[in-house]
Fold:
Amino acid sequence: ADPKLLMQFKRDYPDAETVILNQNFRSHSIIVDSSANLISENKARFEKNLKAFSAERGSVEIITAADEHEEGRLVAGKINELLNAGADPSQIAVLYRNRMVSACLMEELARLSDEESGGDLFFYKSFVFSDIMSYLLVSQKGIVDREHFLTALTHPDRNIALIGLGRREIDKSEWLIKMQKTVFKDQAEVFIREIDFLSKLSPAAAINFILRKMEYGKFIRDFSYRNGMDASIYLKHADGLIKKAQNYRKIDKFCDAMLEEKDHAFYTASQKPKSESVGYYTFHGSKGLEFDTVFIIGACDGITPSEKADSIERIEEERRLFYVAMTRAKKSLYISVSGRYGNHSYYPSPFIREAFGNL
Structure:
């Protein structure tokens, strides 16, 4: 809503009585005081002296990290610490202005949750598991699933045009014949030769061949870097697959076993009540909600406020959103700042100084 509409209301109806609601019944005092400091910077607003009803002070902590990976580890570690101490997961929320800053945190939390439960869900959900399964499945038959074939063909990019891939199932021999008439003939021959060679290997040797000779290991590192993810986690997934594969002599038996394990992991996870998970919300999406503990991540200049906020009005709207995020917390508020996301460097959000400079 545009605050100017409320301010105009008094001018349109000068006899209307104004009642200031200045008691905050949700948040503890340090959260109310710091958020009041912040929003007082806005000019388009009604002046009010906000006070906390609760006598409890509450807590605020600023978490600083060198990059998104460290931010993910630090915030996930703190959340895990709270959960291990008995905190209700449904009373913990992670808020962000831009969804892209949550990737590493969600990755790290999934990994920690997986380790705590002794399960393998994060492993089976990873792109490494599905990609390597695609390679192995494509190696086993002459006619293969289109999605599996496309994955093996394009992860990594082999500089081959996606020709003759319109059907749900791909005949590898027919596809190679079509490619003979194109400038991609040589690359296509190498690809099919390497895929067919996999079928002659043991499962563990085949995965090693995929990682090294077919350059999938390099793809993991490049893909992780481009998407701001920790490559070491996914390289460990590949190592984990090799260890599992050492118990099998045939690729088809290995694939059947892995897909069965994956189905079991997903079924087990589906039986857990949804209340057992921490909530993730954008600032917009958190309006009207409240939690004992809130983590605001990505509190960087250029993210919140957004780099698109190029006027006083837009900066004030960004400040209102940060205020909304801060006041979702009842007892504890954590704000994290990362020095880098991907290739971009960031400074702390000016909203942090505005909120806490006088406390």
Observations:
- The domain at 122-271 is CATH 1.10.486 (PCRA; domain 4).
